[in-house]
Amino acid sequence: MGLLEGKVAIVTGAGRGIGRGEAIELAAQGAGVVVGEVDAEAGQAVVDEITAAGGSAVLHLGDCSEIDNAQSIVRTAIDELGRLDALVNNAGILRDRTLAKMTPEEWDAVIKVHLRGHYAPTHAALNHWREEGKPGHVVCTASTSGILGNFGQANYGAAKAGIAAFAQIVAQESWKHGITVNAICPAARTRMTEGAYGAIETKDEGFDFWHPDNVAPFVAFLCSDASAHISGKVFGVQGDAVELYRPFTSEAVIDNGGSKWDPESFVERVGSLFEETGINPAAENGMARLRYTMTNRTT
């Protein structure tokens, strides 16, 4: 018996990479899986792999950031697999470029797939669970590019930071309904990360820390009732490691004794914020603070 025996889950962007591993792991844990994809061949291959292993899966084709498709994927879970218990928002794209060179189309495409691609399926799933009076679990896919910041990814990072906030807020709104919403910041070797990090060699033997399938077990846990006491949290997930990130927290304060500030006062006073905390006031490479990294970053 797996953690998800008798349950049904949706995974968007499940044809390749992290999403593929998530769909296969959820099925291995006993869940029926709706494989959401825009690529019919890739999606069907995952469905076939799941069913060949004795699991249950169906393919749903369509862009999950479109409202009709998001509502349709939820209906597919209910109509073809009998219920819906969990939603994994995984679909994503990259259009990396520094902001000065980024086109409006590159900005809009990434924001749409990631942010609207989280809103639309989550909106549909939440309304189903609330109308039925049933609990549910949502796993969102954020990124350290968003919560730490990564050069050349203003569109992707903004979307991913928004997803982290989205998960925390929707968790607050859904807690009383028995619905959990958490976010993961995964790191793995995929087609997408090759654009950001360069090609990562696969290990021929032993544990492959950066294999995308390593993300899936924790996602399966978050999709299960065993995680019903956890919501609104952001986790780093890679290799054999799971991290818990703390949201933005006030570290220091200056005040003006109950009077309106004179802008010139900050010339003398604002430095104490950085002195007290040890925070560098200059622009920083946030990804240098990663506990685990696929590349050595020096700039």
Account of the protein in words:
The protein has 299 residues and is an alpha/beta fold. The chain has an eight-stranded mixed beta sheet, with helices on both faces. Strand 4, helix 4 and strand 5 form a beta-alpha-beta unit. The protein is globular and about 70 Å long. The N and C termini lie far apart (48 Å).
Residue-averaged pLDDT, rounded? 94
The helix/strand class is alpha/beta
Q: SSE order, as H and E?
A: EHEHEHEHEHHEHHEEHH
**How many distinct beta strands?**
8
Shape: globular
Strand content: 5-15%
Number of helices: 10
**Uncertain segments of ≥5 residues (pLDDT<50)?**
none
Distance between the termini: 48 Å
- Strand arrangement within the widest β-sheet reads 3-2-1-4-5-6-7-8
Radius of gyration: 21 Å
Level of helix content? 40-55%
Biggest beta sheet attributes: 8 strands, mixed
Short description:
By secondary structure, the chain is α/β, with parallel strands linked by helices. It is built from ten helices and eight strands.
Q: Topology, pairings included?
A:
Blueprint: E1 8-12, H1 17-28, E2 32-37, H2 40-52, E3 56-61, H3 67-81, E4 86-88, H4 104-132, E5 136-141, H5 144-149, H6 154-174, E6 179-186, H7 191-197, H8 216-222, E7 234-238, E8 241-245, H9 265-269, H10 271-277
Parallel strand pairs: 1-2, 1-4, 2-3, 4-5, 5-6, 6-7
Antiparallel strand pairs: 7-8
Helix pairs in contact: 1-2, 1-8, 3-4, 4-6
